[in-house]
């Protein structure tokens, strides 16, 4: 595959974070409170320091529109966002081993605020995407009524729908439309 495994996970995690926002007509806020953030953190295997308060939640939520921008900008625009995220977070790359994972790159210490760590991890992964000239893999779901983001890591670059089941929904709707046209 194109990217290192931790880069792929970081990209998927960044897209999932943005997708917790109420993006389209069918979408609701999925991080309404700290408990929802806790569940997201568990699901995506985030470790490190937490404050479990409203401020932490607010910072994580505020990161989403910034990351979402990346999916809609050209290469220079993406570079601007990535460099800004790294600079604001005072990123300092270092190799670390933890929780059974072999050496991989972190660019913050594990006691940095959660939103900072999320911003930097996403930015480092996006830096890889820019360097390998693969921005076309960052896509918005092709369903008319869905604005969720996806990362197409497929070999033939064929993914068009998000993880929320839009592909099925669109296929079923097209099937029904064909049937009623035949009817
Ligand atoms: Zn790590
Ligand atoms: Zn979708």
Automatic annotation (TrEMBL):
Domain (Zinc finger CGNR) ranges: 137-179
Membrane-crossing segments per the record: none
Superkingdom of this protein's organism: Bacteria
InterPro entries in the cross-refs: ABATE, ABATE_dom_sf, Znf_CGNR
A Pfam cross-reference name: zf-CGNR
Protein name: Zn-ribbon-like protein
Species name: Luteipulveratus halotolerans
